[in-house]
TrEMBL record:
Residues 230-474 form the Hexokinase C-terminal domain. Pathway: Carbohydrate degradation; glycolysis; D-glyceraldehyde 3-phosphate and glycerone phosphate from D-glucose: step 1/4; Carbohydrate metabolism; hexose metabolism. Its EC number is 2.7.1.-. GO terms for cellular component: cytosol; mitochondrion. It comes from Triangularia setosa. Belongs to the hexokinase family. Keywords: ATP-binding, Glycolysis, Kinase, Nucleotide-binding, Transferase. One of its GO terms (molecular function) is glucokinase activity. It comes from the Eukaryota. It catalyses: D-fructose + ATP = D-fructose 6-phosphate + ADP + H(+); a D-hexose + ATP = a D-hexose 6-phosphate + ADP + H(+). GO terms for biological process: glucose metabolic process; glycolytic process; intracellular glucose homeostasis; mannose metabolic process. The lineage of its organism: Eukaryota, Fungi, Dikarya, Ascomycota, Pezizomycotina. This is Phosphotransferase. It holds the Pfam family Hexokinase_1.
Length: 494
């Protein structure tokens, strides 16, 4: 066809010039910039408050951040061995893996199957959830091991990525559902017996050796291959971190008289940071998200950072600018699709931020194809800027959590293992987070741009697979050596 050459080469980097943007739209862009920008002073203030809140969570009185002890009591050496099953109930998918930690240091083999978590299960009844999970496990074992009636029980690490109180490693009392889950009859109860009942009913040959949070799994899996790893983070559907504390610095465990220098991994559950709204500057859009969520008042920090919410914040801005503001964007167009809550996930924002073209033609196509809206060129500039603001705020705020743990522990240099869709796929998330960390911790400018930062946030090893297997292995090993702390059912560890 004549005249239809290849697309122009990718060129666009960051914000456009806005020279042609009409005044009223420009005013809205400025308003959004003011709402969403977190400057260095604010980052530092948030971090300092964060350090105090981490301490409070470990105190006897407790605080807003749960700081859950996990009974993971050592880092791996790299010499762990054995074959384990791992089940990952994260938020979006269900994954079952079989991991073999091999004789070769820090090496493993893995086979895995993914199952989509049906949307209706997330807000359904508890029995259906456990039945679905047990069925997936049964299918996996039958495929890889054959007739289940002939099998000995296989040890399993269950990655249950929700805040859970663990008096024992093989127990998890759900504190509250997060990430849009809302299943009756589970909060306040130990999920392990419910899970085991469903397994028993189907004759699934499994013994649960550890209930794990994805952040703890990430920490341990990353430390398996990199001894500088001190913190494990998830920036995905939800957001959270884990790190290794000394029992002597956990006043709420004082009554157990554990040796003060014994390590204990803490699942921070930092998504709950600042539920009191003391330091985080929430926008009207954050407030709307919170009010309309199944758990208003909970997970204030998470709701500004995690993948589940980024697209929704953006959607709320767009609807507001169409309905309520003088600019009346997308005037005269049907925005019915855009009105549907949670219709845009964070990959929609990623695609906007990834649009390489000066005229934002890919963004325009995205709006046309997914929402039936045809934005004009000025509206496209506003769309791009809104996405940048939301993505940048998320990355900068997440750095406050990493800085807070590092400050609390006195880590001047270390590696942080991070996983999750936002960390791995959202454009510039890593770079923006690293820049914020530099501002918070006052690092001098790099002599060479290729130099490492003192604290580097790096892509983690597979926490809910390899991490879960390692934790199961470490737990079996310590029980063998007679360390029975935090073990509820010793018979499962023989
Ligand atoms: C959960 C955490 C989890 C995080 C990342 C949060 O909503 O409360 O337990 O680690 O999501 O998956």
């Amino acid at each position: 066809m004549v005249g239809l050459g290849p697309k122009p080469p990718p060129s666009r980097k960051g914000t456009g010039s806005f020279v042609d943007v009409p005044k009223d739209l420009l005013k809205e862009i400025k308003r959004l910039e003011k709402l969403f920008t977190v400057d260095t002073a604010k980052l530092k203030q948030i971090t300092d408050h964060f350090v105090n809140e981490l301490e409070k969570g470990l105190s006897k009185e407790g605080g807003t951040i749960p700081m859950n002890p996990t009974w993971v009591m050592s880092f791996p050496t790299g010499h762990e061995t054995g074959t384990f099953l791992a089940l990952d109930m994260g938020g979006t998918n269900l994954r079952v893996c079989q991991i073999t930690l091999t004789e070769q240091k820090s090496e493993f083999d893995i086979i895995q199957s993914k199952y989509r978590m049906p949307e209706e299960l997330k807000t359904g009844v508890a029995e259906d959830l456990w039945e679905y999970i047990a069925e997936c496990l049964l299918q996996f074992i039958q495929t890889h091991h054959g007739d289940v009636s002939k099998l000995d029980k296989i040890p399993l690490g269950f990655t249950f990525s929700y805040p859970a109180t663990q008096n024992y490693i093989d127990e998890g009392i759900l504190q509250r559902w997060t990430k849009g889950f809302d299943i009756d009859g589970v909060e306040g109860r130990n999920v392990v017996p419910m899970f085991e009942k469903a397994l028993q009913e189907r004759g699934v040959p499994i013994k649960l050796t550890a209930l794990i949070n994805d952040t703890t799994g990430t920490l341990i899996a990353s430390a398996y291959t990199d001894t500088k790893m001190k913190i494990g983070c998830i920036f995905g559907t939800g957001c959270n971190a884990a790190y290794m504390e000394d029992c002597g610095s956990i006043p709420k465990l004082e009554h157990l008289n554990l040796p003060p220098d014994t390590p204990m991994a803490i699942n921070c559950e930092w998504g709950a940071f600042d539920n009191e709204h003391k330091v985080l500057l929430r926008t009207p859009y954050d407030e709307l998200i919170d009010n309309d969520s199944p758990r208003p008042g909970q997970q204030a920090f998470e709701k500004m950072i995690a993948g589940l919410y980024l697209g929704e914040i953006f959607r709320l801005i767009m609807v507001d600018l169409h309905d309520n503001r003088d600019v009346n964007i997308f005037a005269g167009q049907d925005i019915g699709k855009l009105r549907r809550p949670y219709t845009l996930d964070s990959s929609f924002l990623s695609a906007i931020e990834d649009d390489p073209f000066e005229n934002l033609s890919e963004t325009r196509e995205l709006f046309q194809n997914q929402l039936g809206i045809d934005p004009n060129s000025s509206e496209l500039e506003l769309i791009r800027r809104a996405a940048e603001l939301i993505g940048t705020r998320a990355a900068r705020l997440s750095a406050c959590g990493v800085a807070a743990i590092s400050k609390k522990k006195g880590y001047k240099e270390c590696h942080v293992g991070a996983d999750g869709s936002v960390f791995n796929k959202y454009p510039h998330f890593k770079k923006r987070g690293a820049a914020a960390l530099r501002e918070i911790l006052d690092w001098p400018a790099k002599a060479d741009p290729d130099d490492d930062d003192p604290i580097e946030i790096l892509a983690a090893e597979d926490g809910s697979g390899v991490g879960a297997a390692l934790i199961a292995a470490l737990t079996l090993e310590r029980v063998k050596k007679g360390n029975m702390h935090g073990i509820l059912h010793p018979k499962n560890f023989q």
